[in-house]
Amino acid sequence: IAQLRADGAHIIEPESGLLADGAVGPGRLAEPSVIVDAVEGVLGGRTAGDLAGRRVLISAGGTREPIDAVRYVGNRSSGRMGWALAAAARDRGADVVVVQANVDLPREPGIRYVDAPSGQTQFLSFSVGN
Q1: In 3D, which of 84, 99, 92 has the Cα closest to residue 35?
Q2: What rounded mean pLDDT belongs to the chain?
Q3: Do residues 14 and 29 lie in contact, with contact meaning Cβ atoms separated by under 8 Å?
């Protein structure tokens, strides 16, 4: 996270509250209104072509972390929000890369996709540049 911030990435911190396992603490997805406000704060008021020359990296979908040869821990994320963000960024002229995990949606033209079905996926030559 520190390196991402140093590189100029905008981070939306997780919120605290009741978690899926019954514990209470940090780790909850930020409320949609918080995410929208943060995105609008960074991109608000911009139009088609304003992201030309910029690279946008988006993660989408839910990883599946193997427990053994048969079982895994995962989530039901469809990846639809990531797909919509990627299409919007592409439409505004950005060079878009989507790191996707287990998404069953048609891939959009003009967007580069990198498959990462689990958090253990290694990228041999993956770079989004500046």
Answers
A1: 84
A2: 86
A3: yes
Q: Residue 18, class by beta-carbon neighbours within 10 Å (0-12 exposed, 13-18 middle, 19+ buried)? A: exposed
- Catalytic residue numbers read 75
Q: Which two tokens stand for residue 111?
A: 């967007």
- What is the share, in percent, of the chain residues with pLDDT greater than 90? 40
What are the b/e assignments for 23-55, b being 16+ CB within 10 Å?
eeeeeeeeeeeeeeeeeeeeeeeeeeeebeeee
Q: How many CA atoms lie within 13 A of 95 on its CB side?
A: 7
Judge whether 87 and 111 are in contact, CB under 8 Å: yes
CA dist., res. 72 & res. 118, Å (int) = 10
Q: In degrees to the nearest 10, what's the CA dihedral of 89, 91, 92, 95?
A: 60
CB 100 within 8 A of CB 59: yes
Q: Which of 60, 57, 63 is nearest to 4 (CA)?
A: 57
pLDDT digits (tens, 9 = 90+) for 27-74: 888 888 888 888 877 776 666 688 899 999 999 998 889 899 999 998
